[in-house]
Amino acid sequence: MAIFLIRHGETLGNASRTVQRPDNPLSPRGVAQAERLARRLEYLGIAAILSSDFARAMTTAEHLRRVTGTPISYDPLLQERNFGDLRGTPYAELGFDMFAVDYAPPGGETWEVFHARVDRAWALVREAATATGGHLAVVTHGLVCRSLAARHLILPEGQEVPVRWENTSLTVVDHPAPWRVRLLNCIAHLDDPATRTLSDSGAV
Prior knowledge:
Helix content: 25-40%
Number of strands: 6
Number of helices: 6
Mean pLDDT: 94
Distance between the termini: 11 Å
């Protein structure tokens, strides 16, 4: 069995380079990305979907549900890092690096608090994967993926934690432990209009 770790599709905030709000919707391009991802995973035996309850993740997960018929569970532990008062601000207007290790966004989460929440999210994912009679799809956000990859997953030899997690990127993690990654931050389905399956990429 495997855990399919997925970042949501492109949003209007991604496209406009704006710090995102929880209700930020997918852009038209993001909807197309989610459709291609769903077609890629349609016949691979997904038995459960676990998603962040932010709009962009929920919509991405819904596209997957439509083609697989698999029910979705939502959990706030899978939300993106909370940047508090910065949400809704264009990156160009910030004047500083909001991702800096020592920066604490007003009304938001420090890195320490965020990573602690991701730890709890990972415990939830492991529990859900164990209870699932097939593959588990987890739809979440870029910084959550990066935190998991840096702190909980064993990456393929010679590969490093990606700085950027692509929209609708797919990361395949073997279940159960030791949580080895077989496919990392892959967007092959966006390169080919017909999409490519995991078997096409050599991952399964």
